[in-house]
Amino acid sequence: MSQSDPNCIFCKIVAGQIPCKKVYEDEEFLAFHDIAPWAPVHFLIIPKQHIISLAHLTSEHEGLMGRLMTLIPKLAAQEGCNPYPEGGFRLVTNTGKEGGQEVHHLHFHVMGGPRPWLKG
Ligand code: 5GP
Ligand code: ZN
């Protein structure tokens, strides 16, 4: 299915070349704990396919992104985010340099749990 970039750290995680604390995996997606968490729950979910950023999505990704969005609340609950509305979670996608993107493989930060958090 997918292209991967041999120099991309998240493609290396997908390939098992770099270890991660896995939260979820299927054919299309991988979710794993962020190495430097800001919140009691902080994991990343990525498409296995090397898509550079949200700015690189095309109409061919609509189904993939729809499946991703419906997966996120399930994984948030599984990882210990408390239920809406008192609980909930924050979803962040940094895009490009001015958007604060450091890893150029599309990823969504899912953060939750009791406050205070390190950031935000
Ligand atoms: P960005 O700033 O691109 O949105 O976020 C990249 C995130 O990836 C950061 O929160 C950073 O802590 C996380 N990260 C970078 N390298 C690794 C890694 O090798 N393993 C894991 N689990 N997370 C990483
Ligand atoms: Zn990649």
General description of the model:
The chain is an alpha+beta fold. The chain has a single domain, classed as 2-Layer Sandwich (HIT family, subunit A), CATH 3.30.428. Helix content is 19%, strand content 21%. The protein is built from two helices and five strands; from the N terminus they run αβββαββ. A five-stranded antiparallel β-sheet has the order 1-2-3-5-4, covered by helices on one side. A hairpin with a 7-residue loop joins β2 and β3. It starts with 8 loop residues before the first helix and ends in an 8-residue tail after the last strand. 22% of the residues are buried. The mean pLDDT is 97. The site of guanosine-5'-monophosphate has 13 residues, from β2.
